[in-house]
Structures are given as C-alpha cells and as structure tokens.
Amino acid sequence: MEADWLVSCREDISSLFPPETLNLNAKHEALKGQFSAVRKVRGDGNCFYRAFSFALLESALRSARDLQRFKDKIMQSTRALDSAGFDEGSFKDHLNTVVNVVERCQADEAEASLLRLFNEQLVSDSVVQYLRLLTSAHLQVHADFFCNFVEAPDLQVYCRQEVEVMAMECDHVDILALLQALDIGIHIVSMEGDERKLVHHIIPDGAEPSLHLLYQTSHYNILYPRPHL
C-alpha cells in the first residue's frame, strides 16, 4: 500500500529496523549509534531529489542567511538552464514554485509549514522537477567533464531520458551535478556494500555537510545525527 505522505514526520531510527528483529546486526547498531531519527520519503523514483530539497530547506530554517543564500542560488541557476538551451516556459513555473516555498520558509520559519508544502503533490513534484531540470542543465553545460561518467553514447539523450523525467531514479553522476550547481555538500550513509559496516560518502570530497541521507535498497531517506555528533 502506497504511503499517504510524500515526506513523513520524524520517526525514531528504530522504525527502519524490521519489527521482528531482536538482535540488531552490525549495520543497524552503527546506524542507531550515530543517528537518532529518520524522516521517510516516498519511494516513487523521486526520493533523492525530494529528500535532498526537504533536508536542505529544513536545515536552512535555522538560519535566515542560509535561506537567502539558497534563494539566491536558485534565482541564479536559471543561467545554467538558459545556457543548456531550455526554453523559459519549460522551467519558469517550477522555478516560481521553489522560490515561493523558500519565501514561505522565510516567513514562517516553521518545520510544520515546510512539511505541509512538501506533502502537497503539485508543489512537491514541482520542486523535484526544477531540480531535475537544473541537474540536466549542469550536466550539459559541463559535458566535457560529465561525459566521462555517463554510460550513454549521447549526454543530451541521457539527460532527456534519465534525468529530466519524473520517477527516474537518480544516479551518482546526477547527484554530483546537482551539488555542484548549488554549491552544497551532503553526507550519504549507505547500507549497501560492506556486509558489516556502514559506508559513508561525503560529496563533494572535503565538504562539511549539514544534510544526511540514508541510501538503502535504491532508496533515500533523511537522517538526523545524535546531538553529540
């Protein structure tokens, strides 16, 4: 049954563990030791973009300067879309939605307002769509670099088919492009790979991110570190 939310309320980190689990495995123990809570995001193929944008704005709620910085970045990002050949009509409404969400955050400074906005399907999806278009634009503007990491004969075709389309899962190269476009770093904790240890990815290298996402079974949720971290 599909969840009736797009982004959930904060839940205790133990909600990620199977209810029948009596003895946590090493990864679960490590996750529980480092993070206190999780905010789940619907698994609809848009989870990275939705989790990233919500976590970014939630983090920025504590700082008027950070909110304004993100708003400025979004306003400036239209240059990349123009450079990549996007018609203004293809992104203007989505851009306006993102700006409106930021302005609501600036006015309310309330997590509840942000959560409500992200659970309105049209608003939430419009934010996701703008980030997808921005990711595509950054990939194309910097094609000389990114073509080396895309397993497709044509970067533009890759962007049209894999990046811009809603519900298409996000690849590592797409994440890197979006983070470069917005000059933001994130911490991704992966449950995949090593059998006993969590795998930590700081993107880009050397960043000190305030955003923490959990990657598990091709899905992203939002993590909240324990206070002592």
What does this structure look like?
By secondary structure, the protein is an alpha+beta fold. Strand 5 and strand 6 form a beta hairpin. The model has no long low-confidence stretch (mean pLDDT 94). It is globular, with a radius of gyration of 18 Å. The longest helix is centred in the middle third of the chain and has 21 residues, at 88-108. Helix 2 (47-60) packs antiparallel against helix 6 (111-118). Strands 1-2-6-5-3-4 form a six-stranded mixed sheet. The protein has a single domain (24-225), classed as 3 helical TM bundles of succinate and fumarate reductases, CATH 1.20.1300. It contains ten helices and six strands; from the N terminus they run E-H-E-H-H-H-H-H-H-H-H-H-E-E-E-E.
Number of strands: 6
Q: Unreliable runs, pLDDT <50, ≥5 residues?
A: none
Q: Please report the first level of CATH classification, the CATH class.
A: Mainly Alpha
Number of domains: 1
